[in-house]
Write a structure and sequence with these properties.
single chain, 110 residues, mainly alpha, 4 helices, elongated
Length: 110
């Protein structure tokens, strides 16, 4: 087999993507997760400085995104660890959403 045939077989096995593409996608996903967490932290700090309250909305979106990502990984990989992490993130998402609804309805002080 030539080098090009090996690369072609690898792309076929990996859905048309070579290993470098997959690694770059993985790194981009991680950078996205960390950037999102950093932005949520920055928004929370700024919100607290200017309003003396913590903004839950960005954290709801962040943990919702993580739970969907890990549920997707679980469906694709069938690894129990991914399911446990996904359920944990979903629980955090649910609790933050409930707190946000209570805050909107006046049951929690804003």
């Amino acid at each position: 087999m030539t080098k090009e045939e090996i690369l072609q077989k690898s792309r076929k096995d990996n859905g048309g993507k070579d290993m470098e593409d997959l690694e770059v996608q993985k790194q981009a996903t991680m950078v996205g997760y960390y950037s999102c967490a950093g932005l949520c932290a920055l928004i929370t700090i700024l919100s607290y400085i200017f309003t003396k309250r913590i903004s839950l909305q960005c954290w709801i979106i962040f943990f919702g995104m993580l739970s969907v990502a890990f549920f997707t990984k679980f469906i694709k990989l069938k690894k129990m660890h991914e399911l446990v992490v996904a359920i944990s993130y979903l629980l955090i998402f649910t609790l933050l959403t409930i707190a946000f609804i209570f805050e909107l309805t006046g049951r929690l002080p804003s």
